[in-house]
Description:
Blueprint: E1 3-10, E2 13-20, H1 23-33, E3 38-45, H2 48-65, H3 73-87
Antiparallel strand pairs: 1-2, 1-3
Amino acid sequence: MKYHVYILIKDGKAVYIGCSGNMQKRINQHRRVKDFDKFTTLKTYKTKKEALIAENAIIRFLTLFGDGDWYNAENIILCFKREFLIREGNNG
């Protein structure tokens, strides 16, 4: 099973960050209780532990530095992807 770290977005702002092994089921659950207009997967992991670590790191980052534009979903997505590109050595 693969685990996905994802972000729910409303009007360009992050409203929820989570992880799931069954995205379709989880998004359907969110649709009943959360107000969002789109979602995107940030990264897919082989283990639930890896996905939970990534999810918690993003949430901690937003808690510490969440003032201003950091809740802008585009900023979160770009920073998250840039971090992995640099880590993987593809920063060219």
